[in-house]
Amino acid sequence: MTRIAVTRRIDPGARSVLESAGEVTMWDSDLPPDPSQLAELLADADAGLTLLTDRIDGSLLDQCSKLRVVSNLAVGYDNIDVPACTARGVAACTTPNVLTQTTAELAFTLLLTVARQVIPAADAARNGDWKTWYPFRFLGRDLAGLTLGIVGLGRIGLAVAKMGEAFGMNVIYAGGRSSDEFRKVSLDELLRTSDIVSLHVPATPATHHLIGHDALARMKRDAMLINTARGSVIDTDALVAALNDGRLFGVGLDVTDPEPLPADHPLYEFERVTILPHIASASEATRLKMSDLAAKNIVAVLERTEPPHCLNPEVLTDA
Length: 319
Ligand code: GLV
Known about the structure:
Blueprint: E1 3-6, H1 12-19, E2 23-26, H2 35-42, E3 47-50, H3 58-61, E4 69-72, H4 82-87, E5 91-93, H5 100-115, H6 118-126, E6 147-153, H7 155-166, E7 170-176, E8 183-184, H8 187-193, E9 196-199, H9 213-218, E10 224-227, H10 236-244, E11 250-253, E12 273-275, H11 284-302, H12 314-317
Parallel strand pairs: 1-2, 1-3, 3-4, 4-5, 6-7, 6-9, 7-8, 9-10, 10-11, 11-12
Helix pairs in contact: 1-11, 5-7
The protein binds glyoxylic acid (GLV).
């Protein structure tokens, strides 16, 4: 019997796709399994549909001798040790493309929210602090004419760049693919000249704390910083220090380090910081597409056909 383990509740459509290929066991909770529960869940599975909260590394894989595929319900895969998968002949799959526009829209939502002080203004209205029409309160920044710096021009970064251009911003980028549409600059120039810095790089050793004390000191004092990539790209302590020093007009974070960010974390004390609980791809349609794609990756590997998005296709030829 082929067994497929799913590490969180997913929608019935994706579950039926998986049921066409094997018996499905689903972790029946809104909270993730802890590492030992995860190992138990995957121990006798041929396939695992995993989330970015599940750490898939060599020591876990060594406890799952039957496993042939892990399919992450995400485009990011820093939770998966891909070389460890490859060494054990396990295919590692992801769900890119279907979430590009949704994620870019959330990045731009954060950008507008921070630029126009939407959260402090909405809080004032809700909390009885709306006494009149204020000529000089909740003043934001107009986007047109500002410089938007995209760090990491991948699919999502490019979509955000196009939105910025449509709002009349001067768009520059550092890192990622090359584009004729936008001006490529060094990271140093981007940090020094951008009014808004938006992060779109994956979490890797090279991007860990890319935005630390030094980068923050190079940014304009009244710049805005938006992160919809991974929390570890920003050094959280350095960010708190910069904010305490009066730097930055505003910050929008959909991802944090640590994640979830504890409710008593100092970052919540800054009115000019907007924090969201990692919802960038969370539209109904997109999460359904992601679940479907994650399931189809699994079915394809189990049926020895080509999965839509495999990070280490070399393991498939040996299967
Ligand atoms: C979400 O963060 C993803 O990587 O899809």
